[in-house]
Design brief:
833 residues, globular, 24 helices, seven-stranded antiparallel beta sheet
Length: 833
């Protein structure tokens, strides 16, 4: 009987298992069916009210889109159609990011991000500014919005991300396109309040000579197109600042010159990431170095190219994900002298070609790092809730914002607003800091960039740049007549009474913005004698032009200098030569740190009896001089430089850390100048506590790096520290936004790009981190687009079942020269009115 029960139980179990497998198979088949239903429409004819004449959408084998139509409005509508079908979810993320509405899509986990963005009330600003756009711009956006919504509703199923989130997409509006531009403001300038507040804290708590030493305007690495490198100030003496007590003959130190320093409180890295979200995209404990949103671009005169025409090169560095931020397109429409073709990169959510060529000019951008935001110290009035202004005391306006979460709960944020902008922070003295930001002003938002599509000269293009409302960028341009030029695109505030590097009070009216510079006042460089213009987020100009642009945290000039020298080493350059410069990963910046280790730290007496230091020396001797994936020596040098910086600066800025635990000096740019002076001159009065000499400390920092490296499984095999290579550290983590949240991790491989080991790093042209790097690489000569190069990570489509999901990604990984122009059409969709 027991045997019969066992048999019966076994059969029941088998039947249940088969049923479960069938249900799972059915569920998988249903899910696959639903996914396929959300694939874009690639072929056929589609009747639509969004176009006024037949408009074709061709896709080549890479998925690059060519849209041919009878008017710019029809092209905008068709482009919106394509963006929605291929990228709507990512467009949705951008508008929600700027508006502080991510929680409504992904839940309360996004509340901290939403609260930071909602302070700026960009949704309200976008609605207001959308209503005041010029008629031509509003027409363009209306056509684009109609196209987006037609593309979304033409899908048989909503984009697959909404299926996973169990949400429905919200139709697109004109204001949403403006929000996409605001999202770029947050990406490119969102770290400005934290950096200016840090400068203000250091200025308040450190003696003036020490503050100036630690925050130099430049270093010997500077490579401006106009002017010379700046020098780092001298190290202040022990009478100004010391980490040790000294016998003194002069009067006792004032509070600002207190010599005894408390050990700093360490800022947890996770917290620093939350505080400075826009500063960097890759993290790995001791082996950490921030990579800043930036870019490279340059333009070379035809006198120095192989075909006699100027070449524009551009690689914009941003956080990387799948799909990529850009969408490749070529727009074709009738012109006065034949068909006009505008080719390049569009930003889904907007109808504009951001960087590219119209056949007569070619252009590109890098983040300018000028000063486009100021923090204002709010002085309280005599009555509670008021503040002082040049027009007398005014009440602080309080606005309540409701942040709705996808689970139905809501969070309330109270925002304090002033005539200058919102309160964004409280400083170490409890003073409220207000942000006066170009992004808040009507001048910071328009669609004037569209006018570039129709101009034919550098002079015209530079004139248009001064009218554009977008995050201020270094704009380089070339035309078919051989001219090259640079200017700032975007509004430039006219400051009165101050420089803008630290927070100031505006209560008296002495300090203020007097509107924005007129177009004729903009800094510009046209046809310089050297025939080359380069920018890499570092200082480009000097003197009066620099005073207009200001200082917003320029990158160390090492990358710009390496590009400059590469360009001047080329005589008759081609587009492929430009790509080689973009891929240059020689470690010129870290070479002196490697030599310091070999010549000063790893001396024979130190090596005796220490096999692991001997191993390190051998790896440094054979490091290869590049940020190569197989170089352990490069990784050691890099980690060592970062460990030295962190160890030294934490002591020098201890009082700042203790006054504000959000302060972290090693995140402020430009610290290489003072750091190198310190390690070479070895001043005893600035030696951190716990060490008897600088030599002891420098060796200790190396031993810390080695100890951390030995904990890594990569260093525990037969290769030892030789297995701790840069490629192991710099492995691509280019992921779909939803990938980390999938319940089954192996599914992520269907959404993410492969985990390739990547060469390159910060402070070299091939800027590259696991989730940060060149979002595209372009090199093109206007009128010779057939020889141009353009590739990007990820692919055209945001759908994992699309053949274009990762199309072209391997060319980006390997640095292959993909063509700038689209190839022969393999799919054609015709939109008919």
């Amino acid at each position: 009987m027991a045997s019969g029960i066992l048999k019966k139980t076994t059969w029941i179990f088998i039947l249940l298992l088969l049923t479960a497998l069938l249900l799972a198979a059915g569920g998988s088949a249903y899910l696959y069916y639903q996914l396929r239903q959300s694939l874009p429409i690639l072929e056929g004819e589609l009747s639509s009210t969004i176009v006024t004449a037949p408009t074709s959408i061709d896709r080549d084998e890479m998925g690059t889109v060519t849209i041919t139509g009878s008017s710019r409005l029809d092209l905008a509508a068709a482009l919106g159609f394509c963006h929605a079908q291929e990228r709507f979810f990512n467009m949705d993320l951008l508008r929600r990011k700027a508006a502080g509405e991510l929680s409504g899509l992904v839940g309360s986990a996004a509340l901290p991000v939403d609260r930071e963005a909602r302070i700026h009330r960009f949704r309200e600003r976008a609605r207001k500014f959308a209503g005041s756009l010029p008629a031509g711009e509003r027409e363009l956006l209306s056509a684009y919005v109609d196209g987006v919504n037609a593309g979304l509703t033409s899908l048989e199923q909503y984009p697959f991300e909404y299926l996973l989130l169990q949400q429905e997409p919200i139709p697109w509006r004109i204001e949403d396109t403006l929000l996409v531009v605001y999202a770029m403001y947050l990406d490119l300038q969102g770290d400005y309040p934290a950096m200016e507040a840090a400068h203000g804290l250091m200025s308040d708590l450190l003696p003036a000579p020490m503050y100036e030493f630690l925050t130099p305007s430049g270093t010997e690495w500077d490579a401006p197109v106009d002017g010379e490198a700046f020098s780092t100030p001298d190290i202040p003496g022990p009478d100004v600042f010391s980490l040790h007590e000294h016998p003194r003959k002069d009067p006792p130190a004032t509070e600002d010159q207190e010599t005894n320093q408390e050990l700093p409180k360490r800022v947890p890295l996770e917290r620093a990431i939350r505080i400075y979200p826009a500063l960097y995209a890759s993290v790995q404990s001791h082996d950490f170095q921030p990579l800043h949103a930036g870019s490279n671009n340059w333009v070379v005169s035809g006198s120095f190219t192989s075909h006699g025409q100027p070449i524009v090169a551009n690689d914009m560095h941003l956080g990387l994900m799948v799909p990529n931020i850009w969408f490749r397109v070529s727009l074709v429409m009738p012109g006065a002298d034949g068909d006009r073709r505008i080719t390049g990169l569009t930003l889904p959510g907007t109808p504009l070609v951001i960087a590219g060529s119209n056949g007569k000019i070619a252009w590109g951008f890098t983040n300018s790092q000028g000063d486009w935001l100021d923090l204002i110290i709010l002085e309280p009035g005599t009555e509670e809730g008021t503040y002082l202004t040049p027009d007398g005391p005014l009440p602080i306006t309080r606005v309540e914002e409701k942040i709705l979460c996808s689970d139905g709960t809501e969070d309330t944020l109270e925002i304090e607003e002033t005539v200058w902008g919102p309160v964004v922070k409280t400083d170490h003295l409890g003073r409220k800091l207000v942000a006066r930001w170009v992004a808040h002003d009507p001048a910071g938002m328009n669609m004037e960039l569209a006018a570039l599509e129709g101009v034919s000269s550098v002079t015209e293009a530079i004139g248009i740049a001064a009218h554009c409302g977008l995050p201020a960028q270094n704009f380089v341009v070339a035309d078919r007549e051989g001219n090259i030029g640079w200017t700032i695109v975007g509004p430039i505030p006219r400051r009165v009474g101050y420089s803008g590097e630290v927070p100031r009070s505006w209560a008296s009216g002495e300090c203020h913005w007097d509107g924005f510079l007129a177009p004729e006042e903009y800094p510009r460089i046209i046809n310089p004698a050297g025939g080359r213009i380069w920018t890499a987020n570092a200082r480009v100009v000097s003197g009066e032009m620099l005073a207009k642009v200001g200082f917003g945290g320029y990158a160390l000039g090492a990358r710009a200098k390496q590009i400059r020298d590469d360009l001047f080493a080329l005589d008759k350059a081609s587009e492929k030569d430009m790509l080689k410069v973009q891929l240059d990963h020689r470690a010129l910046f870290l070479e002196r740190w490697r030599n310091l280790l070999l010549d000063e730290v790893l001396q024979p007496g130190v090596l005796d009896g220490s096999p692991r230091l001997q191993e390190v020396r051998k790896l440094l001797e054979d490091w290869g001089g590049k940020a190569s994936v197989d170089s352990a020596g490069y990784r050691i040098v890099r980690a060592y430089r970062n460990q030295v910086a962190k160890g030294i600066f934490e002591g020098l800025t201890a009082r700042c850390v203790n006054a504000d635990d959000q302060f972290a000096y090693y995140l402020i740019r430009g610290n290489e100048g003072p750091l190198w002076k310190l390690v070479k001159q070895k001043p005893w009065h600035l030696l951190p506590a716990g060490f008897e000499s600088w030599n002891e400390m420098m060796l200790n920092f190396l031993e810390q790096v080695i100890e951390e490296a030995e904990k890594d499984p990569a260093a525990q095999g037969e290769a030892g520290l030789g297995g701790w290579t840069w490629g192991v550290r710099n492995t691509a983590a280019i992921r779909h936004p939803l990938s980390p949240f999938l319940p089954v991790s192996f599914l992520s491989r269907y959404l993410d790009a492969p985990p390739d080991q990547l060469p390159g790093d910060s402070n070299m042209p091939r800027a590259q981190g696991p989730g940060f790097g060149a979002s595209e690489r372009m090199a093109v000569s206007p009128g010779m687009e057939q020889q141009g190069i353009l590739h990007m990570p990820g692919g055209q489509s945001g759908h994992p079942l699309s053949p274009f999901y990762l199309s072209g990604h391997e060319d980006w990984v390997q640095g292959n020269p993909s063509p700038f122009l689209p190839g022969e059409a393999v799919h054609t969709l015709l939109l008919k009115p």
